[in-house]
């Protein structure tokens, strides 16, 4: 694996993780596993509160889609696994990587 391929896979993992955990388009998927509610904490600020649905695998899936650290591990594993066994998937990872790089640039520019 070249450094460029690794960089593309890193950006693809970043974007896929963000897609799973934060993006509105996947809220329907997340709602299968978690309920999200905004509550006020002790300092009167709104914070997200998660209620996991079900037990076993369903609860674990809810834990994954509500945590970018957890989702990042699994996103990386899926991307690297698929790329290792099916190199033709690189175009998918490249698309996600370009979208991820654009998101990072947008964050930088909006600061």
From TrEMBL:
InterPro entries assigned: Mycophage_PG1_Gp7 (IPR010773)
Keyword Transmembrane tagged: yes
Keywords: Membrane, Transmembrane, Transmembrane helix
Membrane spanning stretches: 90-109
Matches recorded under Pfam families: DUF1360 (PF07098)
Protein name: DUF1360 domain-containing protein
Organism the protein comes from: Salinithrix halophila
């Amino acid at each position: 694996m070249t450094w460029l391929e690794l960089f593309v896979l890193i950006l693809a993992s970043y974007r896929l993780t963000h897609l799973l955990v934060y993006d509105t388009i996947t809220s329907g998927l997340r709602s299968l596993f978690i309920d999200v509610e905004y509550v006020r904490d002790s300092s009167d600020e709104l914070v997200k509160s998660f209620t996991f649905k079900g037990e076993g695998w369903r609860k674990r899936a809810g834990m994954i889609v509500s945590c970018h650290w957890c989702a990042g591990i699994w996103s990386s594993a899926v991307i690297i696994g698929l790329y290792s066994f099916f190199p033709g998937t690189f175009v998918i990872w490249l698309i996600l990587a370009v979208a991820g790089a654009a998101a990072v640039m947008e964050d930088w520019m909006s600061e």
